[in-house]
Amino acid sequence: MEMHQLRYFVAVAEERNFTRAAETCSVAQPSLSQQIIKLEKELGHKLFDRLGRQVRLTDAGRLLYGRATSVLEGLESTREELAELAGAGRGRVSVGAMLTAAPYLLPPVLKAFGRSHPEAEVIVHEGMTDRVLEECKSGALDLALLAMPVDDDQLHVEPLFEDELLLAVHPKHRLATKKRVTLEDVMAEPFILLDPIHCLGKQVLSYCLGKECKPRVACRSSQILTVQELVALDYGVSLLPASAAAADKSKSRCYVSLCGASPSRSIALVWRRNRVQSGVVKAFADEIRRRWTS
């Protein structure tokens, strides 16, 4: 049994006519008919009932039709995947991330990915969590980096790592020399709070209140960079993610862990469920996993 025989057979079954099937397959009708006869002899079953110019499948033909279409579809899918694999170094990736994560999580991934896929184009969308979620669901984004929980049946959520929250203080602050500090120590200080319009701001405030500690808020800001600069001026202290601390090259700030079970945010890789990913998107997702999976 040859693949071209299966293609001819499927064409006849769908066209219900040998002449039209031959035209569809771009082959002479006598040649197509000979191949169908050869296939019938090989299988030991009559596949078509001839009714004048029309044909219809026999029971054996209906069985073969179901199997043949699956085989041909699988073959075509495999060819597409192999072609995609060959072109995995080219193409475009649209990746989204929340504002409090993008500057810290994406640059090292982009640098490594750029070295391995120099012909690929990456488009970065930074925004509030709700907006990134909507763009992910609409298909505007291939991938997104977000903080959990992400509760949406339309999205696939793959946890990556825990981003610990650290106390950011001025190097000469009384808490700067401690290996760990208590939340009570923190609450005694003027606190710079990331605005609760960000899920990180909400999380910090919820954590403090959950420990029955109310921060003495001296200032609210919508940008982590502004919070860091205020800490550098010794205006107050704040809780910021370890990813932001790792990217902070300033000598005007230092970071200290909290005692006990440190608070953290769970970072996840998110994409629309059942979305077919191109080779270059899969490669970018793998780079994220290599860099950020715990």
Automatic annotation (TrEMBL):
The record, for InterPro entries, names:
LysR_HTH_N, LysR_subst-bd, WH-like_DNA-bd_sf, WH_DNA-bd_sf
Give start and end of each HTH lysR-type domain: 1-58
Known Pfam families for this protein? HTH_1 (PF00126), LysR_substrate (PF03466)
Which UniProt keywords are present, listed alphabetically?
A: DNA-binding, Transcription, Transcription regulation
Gene Ontology molecular function, alphabetical: DNA binding; DNA-binding transcription factor activity
**Name of the protein this chain belongs to:** Hydrogen peroxide-inducible activator
> What organism does the record attribute this protein to?
Pseudobythopirellula maris
Family of the protein in this entry? Belongs to the LysR transcriptional regulatory family.
User: GO CC annotations?
Assistant: protein-DNA complex
